[in-house]
Amino acid sequence: METLRVGWEQLLTSINRNINEVENQILTRDSKGITQEQLNEFRSSFNHFDKNRTGRLTPEEFKSCLVSLGYSIGKDRQGDIDFQRILAVVDPNSTGYVHFGRFLRLHDQRSTDTRHRRTSY
């Protein structure tokens, strides 16, 4: 019975890995400003903070994830305001969760905004 359970878990892990790979390919295709390397970094960071593997982050998990990617979010009132502004972009319906697609759009938008500002000068 134990062998069957281990085999089943390996199959589920393999299926989830394949799903992640296909999702990454779709997201890369749809995201114009993000390289495959960046996408892999974002996915890895997102998955690291998605401890219970729900495919979504709570606001605190999301904040930790952003900090791990180099976002500077202060621990003061202004930092809270800045974070709430970012959270409103990735969770516009105030569901209390951030899904990977929304998380990725934030980076895609940030990359596009940065490129646009550079070409505007």
TrEMBL record:
InterPro entries: EF-hand-dom_pair, EF_Hand_1_Ca_BS, EF_hand_dom
Gene3D superfamilies referenced in this protein's UniProt entry, alphabetically: 1.20.58.60, EF-hand
Entries under Pfam families matching the protein: EF-hand_6
EF-hand domain span: 37-72
UniProt cross-references to SUPFAM superfamilies, sorted A to Z: EF-hand (SSF47473)
Keyword set, alphabetical order: Calcium
Entry keyword annotation includes ATP-binding: no
NAD found in the keyword field: no
GO molecular-function terms, A-Z: calcium ion binding; protein-containing complex binding
Protein name, entry field: EF-hand domain-containing protein
Organism, scientific name: Aromia moschata
